[in-house]
Design brief:
Layout: E1 2-5, E2 10-13, E3 21-30, H1 37-55, E4 59-67, H2 71-80, H3 84-101, H4 117-129, E5 133-135, E6 141-143, E7 179-184, E8 202-204, H5 206-218, E9 221-228, H6 232-245, E10 250-257, E11 260-262, E12 265-266, H7 277-280, H8 286-294, E13 302-304, H9 306-330, H10 335-340, H11 348-355, H12 360-379, H13 383-399, H14 409-413, H15 415-438, H16 442-454, E14 457-462, E15 465-470
Parallel strand pairs: 3-4, 3-9, 9-10, 11-13
Antiparallel strand pairs: 1-2, 5-6, 6-7, 7-8, 11-12, 14-15
Helix pairs in contact: 2-3, 4-5, 5-6, 8-9, 9-12, 9-13, 9-15, 11-12, 12-13, 15-16
């Protein structure tokens, strides 16, 4: 498997620190407001990564954090007259609901920033002791960018070319490029939003939160750090600097997903075109939204629009339609059997596509080829081939989080549910036919059988009883 490492800007062979295990840290939500499609783009892209790694036989530890305290959360909650922690929790739950609605797997760990202040304080002290951080005015601690010669290596920028993080602007910094590790409490902020430290009372800077949480759950070195491309600078650059300054290797590979655009423009609240997930799901099935956002290469921009959703709906109808028809004809293959297929059991061209930096577009094309094979098998009543293609198609779709018979799509509308409903209706008609035959009402019995035949259902009387199938011969 090869992935594009955005630090080296190259396609690198994926080699894990510990054989058979993968550690991934994804920068999760800052819960200041409702989740929009841009947030879900990142969640879905790396959900597919996790699914593929597990299908490839890796034991994956996936960490996705929650930033539940920052300047915007404090400002918005104060404006609304709500406690900051209550404000954050409302939107944290909205994010959880959005992840679940779109079929995103739960992370191994989902730590909150406010639950890891001791780890942050310990890391800050370590940076001070190693000469990479200093205390400013009471409550302020800054990272000394000039103390780390390799600063800027993630985004390949020299210190002279770097922009200043206005959010960290302060008069007590040695350099305008230095960034806050710890921020002094402000007079207009609630006391509950600050903690006592050796440098004064305050709250964590944004960057130190992720370094501390990644280190706690994944160790001093881990395999992949992921997130949106907008986080590369300053957030990820500063994360790496802090962790390297503390003496930790940190992430071996960096993966960044591209933007979501609305009619060609980068999605942002300033443009007034931010699309809230909950509102979208009132008009569109969650599986369609997932397909639209999650089957474009993670490093390619997703052009989000109504036409995008319409195209995704047509694709879903074809994929799910084959699965439904195969289930009604040859029966449903169990989820256990689907899960048992590993990387080596899947079509070679699908594996090549996924191993090529998660080329989901090429992988989806392979799935379509096997849907065609499955539909052809159903047409010629080759039930063995139809069943085999159901297994392969569903296993490949599961890698993309789109198996129609897996949760949460199964509860929306699954082939199994359709089959159960059809089975109930057909058996009811067959019972009436049996009663008619018992009373020698042959016209009634033939009429009932003809009604099934006209509906495309083949009925066969045998010594073992009555059997039925959708389509031709029972075989």
């Amino acid at each position: 498997m090869k992935i594009f490492d955005s630090k080296s800007k190259s396609l690198r062979e994926f080699d894990t620190i510990e054989p058979g295990k993968v550690g991934i840290y994804l920068c999760g939500a800052t819960v200041q407001g409702s989740p929009h499609v841009g947030h879900m783009r990142s969640a879905l892209a790396f959900d597919v990564l996790t699914r593929w790694l597990r299908r490839s036989g890796y034991d994956v530890t996936f960490v996705r954090n929650v930033t539940d305290i920052d300047d915007k959360i404090l400002a918005k909650s104060a404006e609304a007259g709500r406690p900051w922690w209550a404000w954050a929790y409302v939107y944290e739950k909205e994010f959880t609901e959005a992840y679940r609605a779109l079929g995103v797997l739960e992370p191994t760990y989902e730590p909150r920033a406010t639950g890891h202040v001791p780890e942050m304080v310990e890391m800050i002290q370590r940076l001070i002791d190693r000469g990479h951080a200093y205390a400013g005015e009471p409550g302020n601690v800054y990272f000394d960018v000039a103390s780390l010669p390799e600063y800027g290596s993630l985004t390949n920028q020299s210190l002279d070319d770097l922009t200043v993080d206005d959010d960290d602007a302060a008069s007590d910094k040695r350099s305008p490029h230095d960034f806050a590790l710890w921020k002094a409490v402000k007079a207009d902020e609630p006391t509950t939003a600050s903690w006592d430290t050796p440098w004064g009372r305050g709250r964590p800077g944004w960057h130190i939160e992720c370094s501390a949480m990644a280190g706690k759950y994944l160790g001093e070195a881990f395999d992949i750090h992921a997130g949106g491309i907008d986080l590369r600078f300053p957030h990820h650059e500063n994360e790496q600097a802090q962790s390297n300054g503390a003496g930790y290797e940190f992430a071996r590979y960096w993966m960044h997903n591209a933007w979501v655009t609305i009619e060609g423009e980068k999605m942002s609240k300033s443009l007034g075109n931010s699309l809230i997930v909950a509102n979208i799901l009132e008009e569109h099935a969650p599986v369609i939204v997932r397909l639209a956002l999650g089957t474009v290469h993670y490093r390619s921009t997703v052009a989000y629009s109504e036409s995008t959703l319409t195209e995704a709906a047509a694709i879903w109808d074809r994929l799910a339609g084959f699965v439904d028809r195969s289930v009604m004809t040859v029966g449903e293959v169990s989820l256990d059997e689907i899960a048992a297929l590993m990387k080596a059991d899947l079509p070679e061209d699908f594996v090549e596509a996924m191993d090529d930096d998660l080329n989901v577009s090429a992988a989806l094309a392979v799935i379509h080829e096997h849907v065609t094979l499955g539909n052809n098998a159903l047409t010629v009543h080759d039930h063995v081939e139809a069943r085999e293609q159901q297994v392969l198609v569903r296993a490949m779709l599961d890698v993309l989080g789109l198996d129609p018979l897996a949760e949460p799509w199964r509860t929306e509308a699954s082939g199994s549910n359709m089959h159960d409903a059809l089975d109930s209706l057909v058996n009811r008609i067959l019972e009436e036919r049996a009663q008619a035959r018992a009373h020698k009402d042959w016209d009634r019995a033939d009429s009932l059988r003809d009604s099934l035949t006209n509906a495309g259902i083949t009925v066969e009387d045998s010594s073992e009883g009555v059997r039925w199938k959708v389509g031709g011969d029972l075989g």
